[in-house]
Every structure is written in C-alpha cells, then in structure tokens.
C-alpha cells in the first residue's frame, strides 16, 4: 500500500501553473493520451497539485475496459492527423496500455500529493445542506474533457464505479433530446440510481472499476492516517463527504451506498477484491467512532445487511478486520445485538426476503435506538466552545455480568445448525474482544474487579467449557484460543 510522503504532508502544495496544465491539455485535445499521461508523470511533484480536470480525465480513461483499438483504428493512425483522428476514434478503442498507464499514474499521485489535493476531483456531497459547490477550472476544449464531466456530475464516488458508467455517458451525453435535469441525470448515471441500487439489478462495481475502487480506498486510508498523524481523530474526511449531510446539522447517517459496495466486495471469490470490502468497512467503523457518523444508524444498517444475507461469511469478515481498539469495540456492539436478537426472535435470525426500497425518514436530532443500553455516545453540546467538543464518541463497555449473561444464554431449540454456528462465532468474538479490552484497561490501571473475580474463581473458565468445550472441531478451537488469551 502506498503512503503520502512526509514532504507533501509538511509542505505546501500550490496549484499547477497555466503553462504546465496547457502542456497536458494540448495532448488531450489532440487525442494523444499516452503523451498527456507521460507529461503529467513528469510534472508530478509534492509541490504542485494536479489539476482537478486532469484527475477526472485520468479517472475516465482508467474506468474503461483494458482492450486495445481495432485494426481499422490502427491503420488510420498512420494516415490521419492526430486532431482528426481524435474526433473519429471511439472511446471504446482506448488501448489497454493507456488505461493501465492512467491507473498507474493515479496511484503514483498518492505517493507525492495529499489526499485533499486528489480527493477534490471526486464527486462528493457538501459539508452541509445548502452549501455551494467549490468552483474549479474545468476545461471543455477536448472531447475527453467533456466526457469526463460525467464524474463531476455524479452524486458520489460510488456512482462512477457502477457497471457501464462511462458507456452510458458516451451514449447519452450528446443526445439532443436530453435537456435540463434529464440530461444531468443521464450524465450522473441517474438511470440506474433508483430502485435498482437496493435490489441488486445492476453491478455496483463494474469489472473495469476495481482498480479505481482500490485507488479510492487507498486515498481514504491515506487521508485517515494523515488526520491521525496531525492529532485529529481517526477518520477520513474525504470518506465522510461521500455520505449526504443530515438536515439538522448532526452526524451523518446514510451509509447505504458504501455498504452496497462493501457487500458486493464480500461476495467476490478474488481475495484482493474481498479485501477491498473489509478495508472499506474498517474505514467506516473508524468513522463511526467519531462524532461525524451516527453509530446507531450505522450498526442498524450493517446488521440489516448481514441478516438479509443470512450472515453468510460472517466468520471470515470478523477475522479480516484489523486488531485495533475500534474494531474490538465494534465487534462487542455488533455481537451483542446478534446474540440478543437471536435469543428473543422465534425463529431466530430468519433470512427475510429483501424488502423493496422505500423512502426513509431522516433520524431526528436525538434518536434512541431499541438497544440503547448496547450503543451509547455523547451528543455534542452546541453551546460548548468548539475546542472542547470531544473528537470521538464514547462507547462504554458493557458490564461483565451482561457479557457473561449473553455468553451463557442457551440457544433456542428451533435454531438451525447454520444459526448455531453463527451464534457460536458471535459469542466467541464477543468474549474475545471483551477480554482484549479488559486487558488494555488493566494495563492503564482501570481494574474491573467483577471481571477479574470471574477469572480467578473459576466461574468464567467453567462457562467457557460449557459454551465451547467438546461440541465440535470449531468450538474446540474457539475454546483453546479463549483459554490462551484470557488466562
């Protein structure tokens, strides 16, 4: 994984000069994309930001299929002038080497420039309702610059990843019948942004968009890491901008679009693509530990997705998350809900058919979830001076008695074998993460006498034996791991 250089972080980035931009613009206008990419590579520097239009044009090229030009186009390239050829050549004939070069250059920019300098080229929501978008110097002299405007018009970065995004743009952007709002919707891919998004009637990440998804996630990871190094909370502001702001000015809460991408990644057999899903989920979990994203709504949305999928791949997902405090807090909260709901539902954890999309009411300023005892966070005091507002939500750990009660809860007799496996894994993740958090608390001098007493008097050891001991191979493995980590 690449990381932003210290020179970029500590120095100042200036806008690239008109002359330097013009060198690349001339090549783009003539259809000389390889030359334009080579010039941008030579101009790449931690001192100067790449222009927004250039990043968008690189993204537009990178989203194309990696297939070479036709034989007719190759033969014409020796006879026609570059300007005439660029007007005749279809975008579907962009050579694979050009597509790969644009993807490589985008990744290279992450090593020299700040996430903010690159992320401003992505479509995003404004910081609050009613705010005006930031104007940028958009060049429309070349065909590809006009085509790349579709990225600017998209609602968010997730839309540009959809199957056929660039193809829809090329087919419809020049249509004389598409005017006004209808034209803008076509440019933004609006024809596939309604009910299809939730029902899965289209691919949320096209076959040729995976490298760009990797680039976007890497950009968010660098942004998160830079924020942490600068003493801020562990969150990516660029990722936050990919979720619409709440009308009341409170934490953002709408995470359906990134969750669509995450669960599509988790369905992939390709390990690299699967890993993108867990990386993006990690970023969202870190964001939900701050005041910027409502943790109640995030947990509820994630739980609904897991339930709708029958918790397929739940164990693999839990094991793919990094070993950090935020991840263990998240696991405790999620597994509490899984176990509690399974014990109260009859039959438990039934896989319901996917509901039809509905208009959802926005949460009120103060929203108390049904499981309010499981998820708590401190509401911001708007009268408090800005420098005293906490950067992170408070996730108080549940009491040891609550954890022991859930661990010892008997599974309903109507539970299927698959449900039992899921609940067994949820109990393992719950107690393992809780033990990890208690170990961290002991090191910092915050002793939990109730937890330590259950460890020393043998009651916890016996409970682990009753829950995991000698049931099957998986449970025996859980039992051994827990004994080694707790005692």
Automatic annotation (TrEMBL):
Source organism, top-level taxon: Eukaryota
Region (Disordered): 71-90, 349-394
Record field: compositional bias (Polar residues): 78-90
Protein name: Uncharacterized protein
Organism of origin: Crucibulum laeve
Lineage, top ranks: Eukaryota, Fungi, Dikarya, Basidiomycota, Agaricomycotina
């Amino acid at each position: 994984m690449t990381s932003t250089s210290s020179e970029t972080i500590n120095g100042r980035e200036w806008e690239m000069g008109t002359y330097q931009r013009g060198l690349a613009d001339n090549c783009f206008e003539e259809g000389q994309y390889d030359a334009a990419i080579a010039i941008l590579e030579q101009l790449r520097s931690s001192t100067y930001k790449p222009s927004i239009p250039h990043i968008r044009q690189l993204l537009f090229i990178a989203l194309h299929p990696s297939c070479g030009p036709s034989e007719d186009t190759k033969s014409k390239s020796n006879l026609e002038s570059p300007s005439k050829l660029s007007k005749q050549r279809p975008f579907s004939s962009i050579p694979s080497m050009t597509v790969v070069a644009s993807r490589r250059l985008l990744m290279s920019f992450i090593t020299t420039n700040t996430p903010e300098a690159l992320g401003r080229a992505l479509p995003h929501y404004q910081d609050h309702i009613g705010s005006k978008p930031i104007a940028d110097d958009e060049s429309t002299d070349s065909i590809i610059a006009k085509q790349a405007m579709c990225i600017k018009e998209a609602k968010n970065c997730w839309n540009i990843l959809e199957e056929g995004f660039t193809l829809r743009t090329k087919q419809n952007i020049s249509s004389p019948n598409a005017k006004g709002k209808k034209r803008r919707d076509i440019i933004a891919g609006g024809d596939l942004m309604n009910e299809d998004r939730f029902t899965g009637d289209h691919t949320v990440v096209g076959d040729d968009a995976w490298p760009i998804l990797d680039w976007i996630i890497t950009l968010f990871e660098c942004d998160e890491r830079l924020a942490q190094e600068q003493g801020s909370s562990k969150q990516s502001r660029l990722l936050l901008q990919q979720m619409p702001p709440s009308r009341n000015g409170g934490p953002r809460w709408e995470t359906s679009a990134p969750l669509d991408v995450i669960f599509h990644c988790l369905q992939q057999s390709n390990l690299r693509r699967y890993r993108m899903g867990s990386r993006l989920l990690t970023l969202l979990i870190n964001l939900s530990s701050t005041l910027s994203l409502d943790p109640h709504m995030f947990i509820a949305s994630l739980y609904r997705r897991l339930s709708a999928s029958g918790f397929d791949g739940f164990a693999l997902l839990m094991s793919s998350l990094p070993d950090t405090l935020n991840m263990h807090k998240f696991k405790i909260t999620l597994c509490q809900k899984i176990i509690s709901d399974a014990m109260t539902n009859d039959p438990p954890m039934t896989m319901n058919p996917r509901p039809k999309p509905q208009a959802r009411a926005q949460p009120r300023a103060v929203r108390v979830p049904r499981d309010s005892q499981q998820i708590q966070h401190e509401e911001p005091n708007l009268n408090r001076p800005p420098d005293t507002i906490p950067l992170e939500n408070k996730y108080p750990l549940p009491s040891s008695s609550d954890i022991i009660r859930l661990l010892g809860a008997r599974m309903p007799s109507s539970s299927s074998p698959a449900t039992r496996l899921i609940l067994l894994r949820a109990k393992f993740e719950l107690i393992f993460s809780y033990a990890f958090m208690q170990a961290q608390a002991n090191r910092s001098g915050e002793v939990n006498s109730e937890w330590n007493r259950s460890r020393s008097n043998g009651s916890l050891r016996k409970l682990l034996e009753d829950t995991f001991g000698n049931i099957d191979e998986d449970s025996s493995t859980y039992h051994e791991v827990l004994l080694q980590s707790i005692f």
